[in-house]
Write a structure and sequence with these properties.
seven-stranded mixed β-sheet, globular
Length: 475
């Protein structure tokens, strides 16, 4: 199998080592990627540092044109790239196609934001000492960005780091997840077709145990990390003087209230507790159903989950595929078995075959069970009966995570109450917490991280205000 090169300062390179990429469903090899040497990593970082002034001064039309080029090329190669995502990640083709379409939009949104990204002015003659003065306020890049992306959305979550950096005029060094590097390398290939200066981007397939040097390097003053809670906070602790944005774990909760459309709620919760095999930070993991509708709602939810098509991710009808590895599936299995041994009841699923875990619903889960308290990151849903809004919202907040929550209600007062009281980064009314529009601010609180993605929000994170005061002749 041919070796796929990494991207060093805009050009393809190979090193002295390689990394095999395997398909989670059957374990076959689907790619071999080159691994950069320490010297090549140094060259990439030095190039990003050297080009930072040129990148910041790059005309907006050049940045926007490059971003639109990537958007168009992703669209043109949609089916090819979707199959690449399925090959390395194992997610069903239907979800891989959605991921590519989202990345198409992310680069388009970034091009649009780049064109809107303009300085502001503020008059200073509101006080006598400011007479004849005007302040010009611009945002400038803090410096090159280190973007560390995860395996679960290998294309789109990489796009969420690359696109805003280029839009803001910041060079970026990308370190993709070792299990799924092929999608990020495709982005490098498409960026190499643009007129961006050498050094503006690198995609380095560095193993995780060698990433600390990149994190520590002072020439990469911004770190944007998406991944596990322990690794994310360890990065923040390791480099306290850097600007670190963290998109970490979740334990997505949905609340079903008596005025909800129960069929819609069952359909959405059933599907989005299991899409991506549950390997999404905003997959539904907990659902709190008001006692007034619990007995009516539960059979609808069980029927939905039992009706999901599980199996071969290459089948267009498959909705739930394998987890990223057999180890991951075995961990989910052990957590479910532990909960069942402590009294939980299995209402659907609860079985594993290789790297695939069946879509599962649990009831009567003990309060301290891992499958309830931690991020399961698998196709498992916990159902609990609640009495009233107070109890439901309290249970949503009884978590160390706070990414997004969904509230199924038609009551506007309840919607605004949820927005006020739920300790999460985003509240989705009338739908699951799994809803994300790529152009909106996205991020969490507590152990779900710090900072926000979404193109404008990420560009703000990557930049800082710089002012110029214009002084006229004395009056």
């Amino acid at each position: 199998m041919d070796v796929t090169p990494f991207w060093l300062a805009g050009r393809p390179e190979t090193g002295t080592e390689t990394l095999a990429v395997t398909h989670p469903y059957d374990g076959r090899e689907v790619g071999v990627v080159a691994v950069p040497t320490p010297e090549q990593v140094e060259e990439a970082v030095a190039a990003a540092h050297a080009v930072r002034a040129e990148a910041a001064a790059l005309p907006v039309h050049v940045r926007a044109d490059a971003l639109m080029h990537v958007s168009r090329r992703l669209d043109e190669r949609l089916e090819e790239i979707a199959k690449l995502i399925t090959a390395e990640n194992g997610k069903p083709l239907m979800w891989s196609r959605v991921e590519v379409k989202r990345a198409v939009s992310v680069f388009r949104f970034a091009a649009e934001e780049a064109r809107r990204w303009s300085p502001t002015t503020q008059r200073l003659d509101t006080e006598p000492g400011g007479a004849g003065r005007l302040v010009y306020v611009d945002r400038v890049p803090k410096g090159p960005v280190l973007g560390i992306s995860p395996f679960n959305f290998p294309l789109n979550l990489t796009a969420h780091k690359v696109a805003p950096a280029i839009a803001a005029g910041a060079p970026i060094v990308v370190k993709p997840a070792p299990a799924t590097p092929l999608s990020a390398l495709i982005l490098g290939e498409l960026l190499a077709e643009t007129d961006l200066p050498a050094g503006m981007f690198s995609v380095l397939t560095v193993p995780n145990d060698r990433a600390s040097d990149l994190v520590d390097d002072p020439r990469l003053p911004v770190v944007s990390f998406t991944g596990s809670v322990p690794v994310g906070w360890s990065i923040s602790d390791r480099v306290p003087r850097k600007h670190v944005t963290l998109e970490l774990g979740g334990n997505g909760a949905a609340v079903v209230l008596p005025d909800a459309d129960l069929d819609w709620a069952a359909q959405r919760i059933g599907l989005f507790s299991n899409y991506q095999a549950g390997q999404s930070c905003i997959a539904v993991q907990r659902v709190y159903v008001d006692e007034a509708v619990y007995d009516e709602f539960l059979p609808k939810l069980v029927d939905t989950v039992n009706g999901l098509v599980t199996g071969d991710p290459w089948d267009d009808k498959t909705q739930v595929g394998p987890l990223v590895s057999q180890d991951a599936a075995e961990r989910v299995e052990s957590w479910v078995n532990e909960a069942v041994a402590s009294g939980a009841k299995v209402l659907a699923g609860g079985t594993r075959e290789g790297s695939t875990y069946a879509p599962t619903i649990l009831a009567d889960v003990p309060h301290d069970a891992k499958v309830l308290r931690e991020e399961v990151f698998g196709p498992v849903l916990i159902v609990q009966k609640t009495s009233g809004v107070d109890e439901a919202f309290a249970k949503v907040n009884d978590s160390k995570f706070g990414l997004q929550a969904g509230v199924f209600t038609r009551n506007l007062d309840t919607a605004f109450r949820a927005h006020r009281e739920l300790a999460v980064g985003g509240v989705i009314i009338g739908d699951v917490p799994s809803y994300r529009a790529d152009q909106m601010p996205y991020g969490g609180v507590k152990d779900s991280g710090v900072g926000r993605e979404g193109l404008h929000s990420a560009m703000t994170d990557y930049t800082e205000e710089k002012i110029m005061v214009l002084t006229g002749l004395p009056l």
